[in-house]
Structures are given as structure tokens and as C-alpha cells.
């Protein structure tokens, strides 16, 4: 697409479950924002909140929050970024810098932060307007396709592991070996933990070991909590798979003061006996993605350690098909749209 063109291609959700290809007018970024020529955008399960209309959004809306591209225009007042720089945009659209949470350094919890592809158009498009405060820097050693899933699936698992109380040599569990979990296992291994991958079915055992797990626990044939205790008890489990029952089963597998960090959004509640929490001072907490600096660190660490998502790609115009494939659970393990027609 030449700079002279005044429109760009985008795929937008127009009604619950319906995605369609459209042309949108090219606009300049407003103050504090940048315009990005998108090269690749990952499809994340969270995109369903936009496509199925779970969140209250204004139709039509372009989904997508794992976008990688090149800045082609800066809005007024943008500092620290230059035209031609490779950047990524994740789920968090950028912090305001002035609310109580931002002033205390908690950029993830910014009160005025919009979610990419929900309150404003996301990355299923050739062009994306993004707030400069939410941008992440893409290393030269990462292709756009390889970087895209790391902006959400990678950042979410990396940030949770990195900010957890677990130390090198501790037993850490990764529940669910899917889009998030297959990255979580790799990060946990490279951070120096003893890694137990927990999944359903014996068929994931070989993959788990290949990704770096020291142990594989098949929760369909053994009690995963007991299996973790047999290994000495987990200091930490990151729960990447949705399902409240699966998370509840794991609590008994924690050591005293052990923690579960829930990363996979699920409609079912996590029902836990208070005794299992109280008598060993265990806890369950949630974590939402990570701040832009941790995003930079995720990308840099991924290059250093050789961590990579297993990716399937489709061109932008096939976004409805790619989205349906992701929702069916058939993707191994992240789907990425590419913008070249």
C-alpha cells in the first residue's frame, strides 16, 4: 500500500460472530498517538469478546491486540519513538499517566486505559492508530509473525512467572498446554524452574517434554494436586487453561504459601475449600498481561532464550476463517494474520 492511498483494508466485526473485509479511510494520528503500518497480527481467544459482542462495544469494530508493524506517522507531542521504528501493540491500549494507578506506577491498572480492539480499532488491519504510551519495541532478530503472539500470550505468561515469588530450582506448574501454556512452559524452563506441565490426555506428554517440561501430569488419569505433592509441592502454578474446576483441583498441589496465578479467562467459578487455603496459607490471584517495559523484556528474553510460539499464518482477507479455526481449538498453537495481499 503506497502512502498516496487514502484507504486501507481491515476486517471488522459487524454483528455478533460476523467478520467482514472492508476499506477504511486513512487518518492522521491525534496528539499522543502514532500511526502504524501493520505487518502481522495474532488472533487471541480474547478477541471473541469483540467478535461475539461480549463486551459492550460500538459496531463495527476491528478486533486484534497482537499487532506488529512500523510507525509511519507520529501525532503531536509524541516523544521517544521515530518514524520507521518497529513496534508492537498489545491488549492494553496505553496508560494515561495521570490517574491514581499510573501515578503509583501501576500502568496495567490505569483507569483511563482502553483495550485494543475493544474500545478502539485493533490489528486485523493494514493500519492501526495506537497510543504511544502502550507501544512495545520489536527486536531486529524477531520477524513480525514470530513477535505477534509474544505481545499477549508471551507477555502474559512471562510477566506472571517473572513477577512471582518462585526462585530458580523451585517446582512450578503450568496448567494447560495451549496458546499460553506452550509459551509458559518454555519461559519457566529458561528461567531455571523445575517445570511440571499439566494437561488433559497422554498425547500432550511428548510435546510438553519437547517444550522443556521436566514432568508431565495427565489430569485425566491422575489427581494433579496429588501428583504435584508427589514431586514435593509446587511453589507456583500458572493456570493458562480456562475452567474453574481444573484450577480448584490444583490447590492441594501447592506447597505452604504456594500460589496459583489465573491467566485464562473462564466463565465458571473456582470453588475452593477455605481449609485448603487457610491451613497452608495458599493463595489464588489473577494477572492481566503486563506493562510495556515487561513487553520489551518478554521480546528480548524470547530472542536470548530461543523461546518461540508455534504459529500458523493466514492472510488478512481470510481472517473470518482464521478466527473460526482458532475458536475451534484446532490451531497449534497461535494463529497470525499477515497483511501482504
Task: Explain the layout of strands and helices.
Layout: E1 7-15, E2 18-25, E3 33-43, H1 48-51, E4 67-74, E5 86-89, H2 100-103, E6 127-131, E7 135-137, H3 144-147, H4 153-162, E8 171-175, H5 181-190, E9 194-199, H6 205-211, E10 215-218, H7 224-230, E11 234-239, H8 244-250, E12 254-262, H9 274-278, E13 283-286, H10 292-305, E14 311-315, H11 319-327, E15 334-338
Parallel strand pairs: 8-9, 8-11, 9-10, 11-12, 12-13, 14-15
Antiparallel strand pairs: 1-2, 3-4, 3-6, 3-15, 4-5, 5-7
How much strand content do the residues show? 25-35%
CATH class of the largest domain: Alpha Beta
Which shape, going by the Cα principal axes? globular
Biggest beta-sheet profile: 7 strands, mixed
The CATH architecture category of the largest domain equals Alpha-Beta Complex
Number of domains: 2
Question: Quaternary state, please?
Answer: single chain
Can you put this structure into words, describing what you see?
This protein has 341 residues and is of the alpha/beta class. It has two domains: 7-152 and 290-338, Alpha-Beta Complex (Quinone Oxidoreductase, Chain A, domain 1), CATH 3.90.180.10; 155-286, Rossmann fold. It contains eleven helices and 15 strands. It has helices at residues 48-51, 100-103, 144-147, 153-162, 181-190, 205-211, 224-230, 244-250, 274-278, 292-305, 319-327, and strands spanning 7-15, 18-25, 33-43, 67-74, 86-89, 127-131, 135-137, 171-175, 194-199, 215-218, 234-239, 254-262, 283-286, 311-315, 334-338. The strands form three sheets. Strands 3, 4, 5, 6, 7, 14 and 15 form a seven-stranded mixed sheet that branches. Strands 10-9-8-11-12-13 form a six-stranded parallel sheet, with helices on both faces. A two-stranded antiparallel sheet has the order 1-2. α6 links the parallel β9 (194-199) and β10. The chain starts with 6 loop residues before the first strand and ends with a strand.
